[in-house]
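ok so heres the complex, two chains, lmk if somethin looks off
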Amino acid sequence: MFKKILIANRGEIAVRLIRACREMGVGTVAVYSDVDRAAMHVRMADEAYPIGPAPSTESYLRIDKLIDVARRAGAEALHPGYGFLAENPALPRACRDAGIVFIGPPAEAMELMGSKVASRQTAARVGVPTVPGTCEALPTLEEAARVAEQVGYPIVLKAVAGGGGKGMRLVREAKQLPDAWRDARSEAENAFGDPSLYFEKYLERPRHVEIQILADQHGNVIHLGERECSLQRRHQKVVEESPSPVILERPELRAAMGEAAVKIARAAGYVNAGTLEFLVLRDAKSPWGWRFYFLETNARLQVEHPVTELVTGLDLAKWQIRIAAGEPLDFRQEDVEWRGAAIECRLYAEDPENNFFPSPGRITRLERPAGPGVRIDGYVYEGWEVPVHYDPLLAKLVCWGRDRKEAISRLTRALDEYLVGGIRTNLPFFRRLMHQAEFLAGELDTELIDRMLQQPPEIKLSAPLQNVAAVTAALAALMQASPDGAGTRSSAEQSRPPSAASSWKLQGRQRLLYREPR
Amino acid sequence: MQFNVTIAGRTQRVELRRTATGWECGVDGQPLAADVVEVRPGAFSILVGGQAFEIHVERDNEHYRVHSRDTDLVAAVEDPRRWHGSRAGGLAAEGRQEIQAPMSGKVIEVLVEEGQSVEAGQGLVVVEAMKMQNAIPAPKNGMVERVLVRAGDTVEHGATLLVVS
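and the predicted structre for the whole thing:
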């Protein structure tokens, strides 16, 4: 096992990886940009070194600086986390050249699986169905128009190097193609430095179900079941769960998809943790009433990996490290058991009342839920200033229950306990989602959230709560207006713990001018 | 002290009166037997006849955000002695309006020119923050009077981007 690992990332995933290392007795080396000096991952690591200014192109994306820190600190291995350089084959190559173990797939497998076109070809080779479309980058608009005509509209243009909805356009009819082609290419160029596009037939209301795999260096490849990620906003996943409500009643479908994923991973020479995404559609002709198509591979640890950890009891981050250190998987496919249900909400610094605009800034208050079945993978703390430079993920709230119903009731309860002050977050959005009928019924699709947001939110406001809320708002206004006046305590003084003699204690009955209304 | 508090479209008159040991309160002339403990700044534990409420309040520009369990509310609080009439101006759907940056970020593209007519909802400026590009829409039909930013500019939260009249 390694003695020391460099964590080439920030935010919640850096904290997650440091936790895994700590449990394994492995030392951790953090890196940080100028704005991250006081970030949680720096505070938690054994060692931490600066790697440049805030923009990620000058810090977290600088391979030379990461390798330099790893060498100087004597780290034997490097974990890329997700995002940033996690799926850039130049990083495993640079690690190999420097004699540092890269905790992830080898560069060649990453290249093959990271390219959507190449991974589609690999799937086709081992007989796994893919969504109809092109298997290679389209050379010209004319060629795209010709092939689209054959496959039939609607189609979705996608960036060959892409992900996260960037460089992606839905084209419903031929006349929209030229504009969509131009926009998608420029977006792909900006986001990934590669304007190449391919397309797929657009499938109505597909469900996004992905299979987690683990592959060691000794030829063992197993799958850990599925996560359903159909709840998305702007092509970004916001809620993930396992088991998929579709698969819950159909264990054979899980086995078939798992087997397909393992076949593709083997064919690609994949090693370490990876995820294979599928689209699943209703199909009466299929033996399970549902049909699946391979979509793409994520050659990294996923944001939503805790969902699988909760239902399988396996620690994926630790397995990544063990596999990279050369250890074999010590369990077989038939040993993998799934228990209960887990659901994750991605807590973002964004304002659901204002079109989900990003909302960076200082966190003035943070109350985190706890109790049975609640897991939070986060990195923020009270006083932390969420920087504008990186993605707005603050934390992942994941709840486990013995079945989906209990997982939802725990999540609902935990969301009610969660409070983030100073910035806006999407917590109110999740609180609303927990009562949405289709979500509760497990009927998930990528447009469910858009449909929900088109309806005005229903405000449940009882008369007692309205009164109490009004009084509290008035008290807050009074404090604001005269923080020291009328004998009230100033804001600074209020930070001391409350006592029975607190002047803010409004003793009801005996001290009231009014009589209690009955 | 008296305040007019508007929540979810309903305005109530709240009275707060200091006593030797605490506060008395009333809503719309009715006494409210509330036992209020500020457990920490902005966090209140309130008991009304045994019914328990945990309320968090946070100031947000001109409003207060009030959170209770699964309910998120926005409260407008007016001190009748201080403010006569509304202070709101920036968000009125009439007249000249300054379009402000809803977050700090970088201007990616200005989609309109000075003198151009725009419709409510039409994208005016694309601002990137936290890796997301967002088109800032026109709040109403009108004409772009001034454009104050250019592509590539870095803007702070609240900075005026353009003026629509």
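quick notes: Chain B touches chain A through 69 residues (CB under 8 Å). thats all i got rn
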